[in-house]
Design a protein that fits this description.
By secondary structure, the protein is an alpha/beta fold. It has 2 domains: about 5-145 and about 205-245, 3-Layer(aba) Sandwich (Rossmann fold), CATH 3.40.50; about 150-205, S-adenosyl-L-methionine-dependent methyltransferases (N-terminal domain of TfIIb). Helices cover about 25% and strands about 35% of the residues. It is built from 7 helices and 11 strands. The protein has helices spanning about 10-15, 20-35, 50-60, 70-80, 120-130, 145-155, 210-220, and strands spanning about 40-45, 60-65, 90, 105-110, 135-145, 160, 165-175, 180-190, 195-205, 220-230, 240-245. It has a 7-stranded mixed β-sheet with strand order 3-2-1-4-5-11-10, sandwiched between helices. A hairpin with a 4-residue loop joins strand 7 (about 165-175) and strand 8 (about 180-190). Helix 2 packs across helix 3 (about 50-60). The longest helix is centred in the N-terminal third of the chain and has 14 residues, at about 20-35.
C-alpha cells in the first residue's frame, strides 16, 4: 500500500499535538527577516492535509500548496472550503518536479517532507526546480530531521496510541549504512461497528547539513543560514530538526 493513502484520513488525528500555529509564526519570522512580508506569494512543498498552509494564510501570506498525494490534498481541500481562504490553490505535483503559473516570492517545506526524498539526485532536482519557480532574490525555507533523530530518538522504537475512532502501531527500523529510517505503520480505523486494518510503509532519508548546503550552492542558492529548529542558534550534535534558509 502506498504512502499517505489511508493514512491521509487519520493523519490530523495522529498529528494533533503538532503546534502548527507556532511553527507558522517561526516561519513568518524567518521570512520577514529575509524581506518576505505578509501579502507575498509563498508555495508550500509537501503541504499534506494543509494545516500549516492554513496557518500561513491566517498570517497574511498568499499560499499555494503542493503535494504528491491526492488523498492528502482531498483532506486539505475540505479544510479550505467555506473559509475566507477557499481560493487557495492546492496542486497535485511532485516537489522535485513542479511548476507554478507565476514565480513565487518564497518556497517553504516543513514537517520533514524533504526527508522523503531518497536519493541525492532527487535533492538536486528539488533545488533545480525550486530555482526555476522562485523570483529573483527569492527565499527557500525547509526543515529536515537529522541523523541524530533517526539514530537516537526513533532508532528501533515502537510507538502506539489509541484514539476515539482509530489506533496505530508505528514500528521504526533504521538502516545505518543507507541513512534511511523505515516506518511500518499499522492502522486500525473504525468502520461502523468494526475496525479495518491498513498497513503502510514509509521511508525517510537522513541528509547531512553540508551535503544539503553543497547541493543548494551548486544550484545557485547563496546566503545560506542553518538553525536548530525554532531557534536562531546553530545546530548542535543533538539537534533533532534543523531549518535551512536559502536565497536564490
Amino acid at each position: 500500500m502506498g504512502m499517505y493513502t489511508d493514512f491521509a484520513y487519520v493523519y490530523d488525528v495522529m498529528m494533533g499535538d503538532i503546534p502548527y500555529e507556532e511553527w507558522a509564526e517561526y516561519a513568518k519570522g524567518l521570512l520577514e527577516e529575509n524581506g518576505i512580508k505578509p501579502g507575498a506569494h509563498v508555495a508550500e512543498l509537501g503541504c499534506g492535509t494543509g494545516s500549516f498552509t492554513m496557518e500561513m494564510c491566517k498570517l497574511g501570506y498568499k499560499m499555494t500548496g503542493i503535494d504528491l498525494s491526492s488523498d492528502m490534498l482531498s483532506v486539505a481541500k475540505s479544510k479550505f472550503e467555506d473559509t475566507e481562504y477557499s481560493d487557495t490553490v492546492l496542486s497535485e505535483q511532485d516537489m522535485t518536479d513542479f511548476s507554478l503559473p507565476e514565480k513565487a516570492d518564497a518556497l517553504i517545506s516543513v514537517c520533514d517532507s524533504v526527508n522523503y526524498i531518497m536519493e541525492k539526485e532527487g535533492l538536486e532536482k528539488l533545488f533545480t526546480c525550486a530555482g526555476k519557480n522562485l523570483k529573483s532574490n527569492g527565499v527557500f525555507i525547509m526543515d529536515l530531521k537529522t541523523r541524530y533523530f533517526y539514530e537516537n530518538v526513533l532508532a528501533y522504537n515502537t510507538m502506539a496510541e489509541n484514539f476515539e475512532n482509530c489506533s496505530y502501531i508505528w514500528d521504526n527500523y533504521y538502516h545505518e549504512e543507507e541513512r534511511v529510517n523505515e516506518y511500518l505503520l499499522t492502522l486500525f480505523v473504525q468502520d461502523g461497528k468494526f475496525y479495518r486494518k491498513y498497513v503502510e510503509n514509509h521511508f525517510q532519508k537522513a541528509y547531512e547539513v553540508d551535503e544539503v548546503m553543497d547541493t543548494a550552492r551548486k544550484n545557485g542558492f547563496t546566503g545560506i543560514k542553518v538553525y536548530d529548529a525554532f531557534t536562531r542558534e546553530k545546530p548542535g550534535k543533538c539537534s533533532e530538526r534543523v531549518y535551512f534558509v536559502f536565497r536564490r
